[in-house]
Amino acid sequence: SVVSESVVSESVVSESVVAPTGPLLSPAPAPVPLTSRAEAEAADRDDPLAFVRDRFVLPEAMRYLDGNSLGALPRSVIDALRDAVERQWGHDLIGSWNANGWWDLPVRVGDRIGALIGAAPGQVICGESTTVQLYQAITAASRLVPDRQVVLADATDFPTDRYVADAVAQQFGLAVRPVRPGDAAAVLAEVGDEVGVVALSAVDFRTGELYDLAAITAAAAAAGAVVVWDLAHAAGAVPVELDAIGADLAVGCSYKYLNGGPGAPAWIYLARRHQERLSLPIVGWHGHREPFGLDGPFEPAAGAVRARLGTPPVLSMTALEAALDVWDGVDLASVRAKSLALTATVIDFADRELAGFGVHVATPRDPARRGSQVALRLEHGYEVCQALIARGVVGDFRAPDLLRLGFAPLYLSHVDVWDAMEQLRNVLDTQAWREPAYAVRATVT
Fold this sequence. Notes:
The chain contains twelve helices and 15 strands.
């Protein structure tokens, strides 16, 4: 799992990789699934994260199981945006770049995200979209190993990841070799001297399968390759220790488990040992050594700041910064334990109560191989999803037949999840999904 105690070998492309001296995080105990609403109520009374729920705006009649697509609204964001618009922009205007800290937002927010993914300050920069950051990371990684011509990439990964890997390969004359993430270490052991970049997601966006970041990173380092991790479905849901496992580069979005809001800016992690040698394909004046010198060729700023490009989206980044306040006082080990408990209950419920309706669990049952979602494979999954939404249970659908249920432990209760599963059983039992309106495909599924 991502909390593996694997020792990281020194990479031939790095000055040094510090191996973990002990466990990165103690694995959570094997979760015991709940089997009744009464047990769910009891679990909520004992929930160490219960105090965090009030930090979010949550519609009363909704069971929101789509935090793996868009996180709920933190209450702190409302006042922060009002102040940013009315006072900072409306009154202080251009002075806000200095007086209200607009200039430092990408670094400040980056460091706060870094704390949630096991990165020491000075290695994460916030800004741009995930697509841009993937392009930056994969290209920069390939330039660290210019004599290697192969990029290992998951052929079933999220489309953007595949598109970007293919685009980088076409642009720079590289070859993309498809690989199952679970097979990456074995492939690297076999043909590692050809591989320059390993570009994978930590969690499969369809099934929720969690891969062993530590073991794959170690295998890549031993082969002299550079790893780019996409943490979109991991950050804020799974304890990640990038520094401890010797990670190279990583990217992620901020609108899922980090609750930064629709279109929240993405971020990029640049391991400190690589920073001064990284050659990024897109550069901008905010990443210049003297951004207000406004003259001469590009000279990268020291450290990760070189990954800054142009003017950041101040309002979106302000919302994200305020959203990160919900993590104050939160123990990531408790988040992981609750996530595993919620998903264990759903998997057990599906096995006991839904198998007769042709429902199959597509998510690994092994807790160490599971992110913070459960994917259920069933015929007419889209229609079932729409019927659930009509009943106040919000998940989403991924073609061809997956009903995805995402679990954000900061604001989901055990009772929320139990009631959602009861509604799913009722939709299948009554065949409510057959309502013709539920078969009409919306643009966003």
